[in-house]
Amino acid sequence: MSALVLDSQSEFTPVAYEAAPAMRVRLTKRGRMVFGALATALVAGLLACVAAIAAPQALASNSAGGQEFHYVVAQPGASLWSLASTLDPSADPRDLVAEIVQLNQLDGSGVQAGQPIAVPLRYSDAAGVVSGEELSGELEAAAF
User: Fold this and answer.
1) Which helix (H) or strand (E) holds 62?
2) pLDDT tens per residue, range 114-141
3) Strand pairing of 129-131 and 116-119?
4) Is the dihedral angle over the CA atoms 60, 63, 64, 67 positive or is it negative?
């Protein structure tokens, strides 16, 4: 252990120290990539926050939607291919069958006799197509 004894009569003289030269930070290629990735993540995070705040809110209501579907009732021996060919003979049946499967959320392309099949609205004027109201009226009349 060392001790320093100060005399009350001695004078203090400040010692001047030279300032250390400013160190320049040098980044390697990997360092620049890390800082670039951090900056990109920061900007993406800020944009996500702004988008979340500025996005319009969804409004839920108890009223039923105004969407109305038109239906074709499958006859015995009918298939989606035959229904598609009947609805639009000039179109490729594969496209219309795919659209009907998606619209009705069917697992396959099989249909049963009497099954109501929703069709795209552009075919609402085709022969054999009925509205949802007409279909429900026919089903109620058949039940009695």
Assistant:
1) none
2) 888 888 888 888 888 888 777 776 655 5
3) unpaired
4) negative
Q: Which of 137, 122, 3, 14 is nearest to 73 (CA)?
A: 137
At residue 15, φ and ψ (nearest 5 deg) are -100, 130
**CB contact at 8 A, 77 and 112:** no
* pLDDT for the residue 11: 66
How far apart CA 125 and CA 137 sit, in angstroms, is 19
Q: Which tokens sit at 70?
A: 């038109």
Burial classification of residue 123, based on how many CB atoms lie within 10 Å of its CB (0-12 exposed, 13-18 middle, 19 or more buried):
buried
In the chain, where the domains are located: 70-143
3-state secondary structure of 92: coil
Q: Give the residue from 64, 66, 75 showing the smallest Cα distance to 117.
A: 75
Least Cα distance to 72 among 126, 21, 12, 4 occurs for 126
User: CA-CA distance, 130 to 69, in Å (whole number)?
Assistant: 9
